[in-house]
Specification:
heterodimer; A: alpha+beta; Arc Repressor Mutant, subunit A; 17 strands; 20% strand; B: alpha+beta; 3 helices; 3 strands; flat
């Protein structure tokens, strides 16, 4: 199942992914799913579990789940059944979560992931089911009590359950990223992980090759790819240490803390039977017709793999570049806008994957929150292309644009960064430098053609220094050759 | 499966029901009688029968994705045992 061994141990990883569906109203009530408002403003009588209320299923939640199923080539549950998962927790007002178990809306499917070495791997999806989210427990600021905000209670989720097909952290992260790309591409989720709109639980076990599966632990609620990778590595190391010291792995839920890169046991996992699932008597089976499915299939947006192929074809990008740029909806959209505005796809690709990615990474920002808009990057690219600025000055303009100094055109204008196009002025500077450097001029004139190419660099450097980088390097070269 | 007073205590705990020790014996006897009836049902051959999730031969009506529920916070918070800053308050949940 897995490819790599750690100290002779095989690692087995499966993921459970909660994806918040981008509906306006909740899965069983007409309350808003909006976030950021005052606590309990969007907790309707149904969400509060008031006696006498009845749930009615949101059509769009069903459609979104079917869309996801189609995107991963899954069998769609023509008939799916909601069940009650019974447990008591203050942020779950009804005393049960309405979810699906035996007859989920999305059956077995698969997701193909691309690995760093260029190879591909198929991760099987066991199923995906619809369920409602719980509210939030707030532990601070309530002098020893816990505050309950039920605005999130009843927000529709799909929980995607993978088979244990991943053998290391890299594969798990590649899978998580691919899922993110899929759900954002088909528009069923906004993918904002900082808001918990996509959450990952990772099941990990280790074993000696050929032996039965080891006892697994579940690390919950990882909300960034970076934390996920670290948390997996940490847990794999812990399990191997325990087993090599002769200990036993306890089946438990663990909570990862990204700030300290540590994890602790949260609770030993209750037996599945303890939830006493049973079909929800308040909800009838949900039927999805062939026509519904075909209609959704027909209006399916472009999937990440198709987008990658299109990028390679339409923009002449390499396999690697196209895969990277197509890997998330936000990146793809940004790149396409920048490329269209800039009129140069290769330059746009280099900027998005180079300076922009580095800067986003350094400031831990998502491209959706990038301070330089795609339109502005496009404008910058245009100015490089039409010779207004050199690519070196472009970096300076980019930094200023990032800092909020205005559009590239405004920055170029206000900071006087235009490339010197007046050859008269440039010639004057060049003449001066030649006059000031008799030794280097002598040296250059005595050299053969091959060496001259190198030696001219000194003069180009001096000109750039004198013009603060605003001269067009090509023009400088030509003029220098002429004059020397 | 036979139910003894330990199982009764466990199930009662899961359902957050208060069942005093003195009641457990009698309850387990009555539950065993019910399970006896279930055992009888188990003997019926249902190999050809589809599992039933609901007794009605109907499917779930769906509603359009529209926000149409009123904000009831100011009505429900006052009837909660305790509330503050728009939140319901409960005894501290320790994880």
């Amino acid at each position: 199942m897995s490819s790599s061994l750690f100290n002779g141990w095989e690692v087995v990883i499966g993921l459970e992914v909660h994806v918040q569906l981008a509906t306006r109203s909740k899965i069983f009530s007409g309350a808003s799913t909006a976030t950021g408002d005052e606590p309990n403003r969007h907790a309707s009588l149904i969400d509060l579990g008031m006696p006498g209320t009845l749930p009615v299923v949101n059509k769009e939640a069903i459609r979104n789940a079917v869309r996801f199923g189609l995107a991963i080539n899954a069998e769609i549950g023509r008939r799916s059944v909601f069940e009650r998962k019974n447990y008591f927790y203050p942020d779950l007002p009804k005393g049960y979560q309405t979810t699906q178990l035996a007859e989920p809306i999305v059956g077995p499917g698969e997701v193909v992931i691309q690995l760093d070495d260029g190879s591909e791997k198929t991760v099987r999806i066991h199923h995906a089911h619809l369920e409602e989210d719980a509210g939030k427990s707030l532990h601070e600021d309530f002098h020893g009590m816990t505050g309950i905000d039920l605005n999130r209670a009843g927000t529709p989720l799909i929980e995607i359950v993978s088979e244990p097909d991943m053998g290391n952290a890299e594969e798990a992260v590649a899978f998580a990223r691919k899922l993110h790309a899929i759900v954002t591409s088909i528009g069923v989720c906004d993918g904002d992980m900082s808001q918990g709109n996509m959450r990952f639980d990772v099941n990990i076990s280790v074993r000696r090759p050929g032996e039965p599966l080891g006892t697994r632990t579940e690390t919950k609620n990882l909300n960034s790819f970076r934390f996920m990778e670290k948390a997996i590595k940490l847990e794999v190391e812990r399990q191997i240490d325990v087993l090599e010291d002769g200990g036993k792995i306890v089946q438990e839920t663990r909570l990862y803390n990204g700030d300290t890169n540590t994890a602790r046991s949260m609770r030993t996992k209750e037996d599945a039977n303890d939830y006493r699932y049973f079909p929800c008597p308040d909800l009838l089976p949900v039927l999805v017709s062939e026509e519904d499915i075909e209609a959704l299939r027909a209006e399916m947006p472009e999937l990440p793999d198709a987008r990658k192929a299109r990028f390679m074809d339409a923009y002449q990008l390499s396999d690697y570049d196209a895969a990277l740029l197509a890997s998330s909806m936000a990146t793809a959209r940004y790149f396409e806008t920048a490329a269209d505005h800039g009129g140069d796809a290769k330059l746009a690709a280099n900027w998005v994957m180079g300076d922009l990615a580095a800067k986003l990474n350094a400031e831990d920002l998502d491209i959706a929150h990038c301070p330089v808009s795609a339109e502005h990057l496009g404008q910058l690219i245009q100015r490089i292309k039409d010779g207004t600025i050199s690519s070196k000055i472009a970096k300076q303009v980019f930094e200023a644009c990032w800092a909020g100094d205005g559009s590239p055109d405004q920055i170029i204008e206000s900071q006087g960064l235009k490339q010197m196009s007046d050859s008269g002025e440039l010639e004057k500077i060049i003449d001066q430098i030649i006059a000031d450097s008799p030794a280097q001029v002598e040296d250059y004139r005595n050299a053969d053609d091959a060496k001259r190419k190198k030696k001219i660099g000194y003069f180009v450097g001096q000109v750039m220094k004198a013009t603060q980088g605003k001269a067009n390097p090509q023009q400088v070269n030509e003029l220098l050759q002429e004059k020397l | 499966m036979a139910i003894d007073s330990q199982v009764v205590a466990r199930v009662a705990h899961l359902a957050r029901l208060q069942v005093d020790e003195g009641e457990r014996e009698a309850l387990s006897e009555r539950l065993n009688e019910i399970l006896g009836m279930v055992d009888q049902l188990q003997q019926a051959d249902v190999g050809q029968v589809e599992p039933l999730a609901h007794p009605l031969e109907l499917s779930q009506p769906l509603r359009d994705d529209r926000v149409d529920e009123p904000d009831v916070r100011d009505k429900v918070l006052p009837i909660a045992p305790a509330s503050e800053d728009g939140c319901f308050l409960v005894p501290r949940v320790i994880e």
